[in-house]
């Protein structure tokens, strides 16, 4: 099962993720936060969005909204947004 091992807020609604298979990628959540939903509304504020943290390998926000790390990885991989980390 794939997990997010690290995340970094990049500004706006963008986050870079590092996954347990040594891959990384960046995702812009602008379309997601534009969707309706009580849990999504707070994420529209970039200051709140920036408070993302990991809980058991899942990106999570203070209001309890979280994203399945496996689904996140598959979505990003299918969109060509995931690449392997270069080991130097």
Task: Predict the CATH topology.
Answer: NE0471 N-terminal domain-like
> Nearest-angstrom radius of gyration?
13 Å
Shape: globular
Q: In which order are the strands of the major sheet placed? A: 1-2-3-6
Average pLDDT reading: 94
Our count of domains comes out at 1
State which percent range the strand residues make up. Answer: 25-35%
Q: N- to C-terminal separation? A: 26 Å
Q: How many beta-strand segments?
A: 6
Task: Report the helical percentage.
Answer: 10-25%
What low-confidence regions span 5 or more consecutive residues with pLDDT below 50?
none
Q: Biggest β-sheet: count, sense, barrel? A: 4 strands, antiparallel
Class, according to the CATH hierarchy?
Alpha Beta
Number of alpha- plus pi-helical segments = 3
Question: What is the CATH architecture annotation?
Answer: 2-Layer Sandwich
């Amino acid at each position: 099962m794939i997990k997010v091992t690290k995340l970094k807020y990049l500004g706006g609604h963008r986050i870079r993720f590092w996954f347990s298979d040594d891959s990384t990628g960046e995702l812009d959540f602008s379309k997601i936060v534009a969707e309706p939903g009580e849990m999504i509304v707070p994420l529209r504020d970039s200051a709140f969005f920036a408070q993302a943290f990991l809980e058991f390998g899942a990106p999570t926000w203070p209001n309890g909204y979280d994203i399945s790390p496996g689904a996140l990885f598959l979505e990003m991989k299918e969109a060509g947004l995931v690449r392997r980390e270069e080991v130097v």
